[in-house]
Write a structure and sequence with these properties.
three-stranded antiparallel sheet; Endonuclease, Chain A
């Protein structure tokens, strides 16, 4: 019935508080796994093993423990949401077997795969060319290559000119890419809508709310095509919810882009830092190069008055706890 996940710790009992008070007075307490109050305090993060002696537990500032728990549960929530968004990929083998056995051979399969970049592009061109009502597209990462945009622009304008509604979702860094801005300007002038979001999302195309296409594999050289009504409806709902939270991308307001999206980008970096992701992973999630990421990181450190990465992590944990302005840790050296 689903993957196990860590449950919230129980309420703090009076006995546990007495043990915690003793640890505060004595600055440490012996670790005895048979004492339930110690187990509870460790689960809360109010006690942790001493670096030099795991048999001894030292007390932890409740504000820091709160920040750690909140970050952990937010990470678990994000992982569950990601699993839900990938449900069609997980169920694809079973669905393929079911459709083979339960449906006549002439029926359209609920799930099918397309392999190879040229085959995927040809398939996308064909099904979007057959669209009569709406095309939804989610393109993660930063700006797209100029050659790709030049190739797809005539096809996009053709769909718009014959009355097909088109909504496209990028990540915020796409606003700072000149070829992407030029493409968006041409698309929006013809009636298309484009927005950007700070969060990572999967590459997705939905045609007339009846067919969905998802990239699969690390190299993105395969795609899964979803015909199942329930799965397509689910993916469309995911897109719509992201769309509602996204910021309109208006090339005419290029000069306003930093003010409109930079706070979102910096807040996203802060959240991912608190969650413990590496610099390389954060850059990929946001859709920027590592060089650009480190420029943003330097600005965040400067804005928070942090002199080192360690101090920045400390300040972010305190900020996450929402307990006011913390005292910064002493600098080494």
């Amino acid at each position: 019935m689903g993957a196990d996940r860590q449950e919230p710790p129980p309420e703090l009992s009076e006995a546990a508080l007495v043990v915690y008070e003793r640890a505060l007075r004595e600055h440490a307490i012996a670790h005895d796994p048979d004492v339930p109050e110690l187990t509870t305090l460790v689960r809360f993060g109010l006690l942790e093993p001493a670096p030099d002696d795991p048999s001894v537990l030292r007390p932890v500032d409740p504000r820091l423990a709160e920040a750690r728990l909140a970050s952990q549960w937010r990470t678990e929530a994000w992982q569950l949401e990601l699993q839900a968004a990938e449900v069609e990929h997980r169920l694809a083998p079973a669905l393929r077997l079911f459709m083979t056995e339960a449906q006549p051979e002439s029926a359209v399969p609920a799930v099918e795969y397309v392999h190879g970049m040229s085959e995927i592009r040809a398939f996308i061109d064909r099904v979007t060319g057959e669209a009569t009502e709406e095309i939804l597209t989610a393109q993660p990462g930063g700006g797209r290559p100029a050659t790709v945009l030049q190739a797809v622009l005539p096809l996009t304008l053709e769909r718009l000119n014959r009355g097909v509604a088109m909504r496209t979702l990028y990540q915020h860094p796409a606003r700072f890419n000149a070829p992407t801005r030029a493409y968006v300007e041409a698309v929006t002038e013809s009636g298309g809508e484009v927005r950007t979001l700070d969060e990572f999302f999967e590459r997705l195309i939905v045609i007339d709310r009846s067919v969905a296409i998802l990239a699969t594999g690390e190299d993105r050289t395969s795609a899964v095509v979803i015909h199942d009504e329930a799965l397509v409806r689910f993916l469309t709902d995911v897109f719509d919810r992201n769309w509602q939270r996204a910021t309109p991308f208006t090339p005419a307001r290029t000069g306003h882009a930093p003010a409109e999206v930079m706070p979102d980008i910096h807040n996203m970096i802060k959240r991912l830092l608190v969650e413990g992701l590496t610099d390389a992973a954060i850059a990929r999630r946001i859709g920027i190069s590592e060089r650009t990421y480190h420029t943003h990181l330097a600005r965040i450190r400067e804005s928070m008055g942090a002199q080192s990465r360690l101090q920045l992590g400390y300040l972010l944990a305190k900020e996450e706890a929402g307990r006011g302005e913390p005292e910064p840790p002493e600098q080494a050296g």
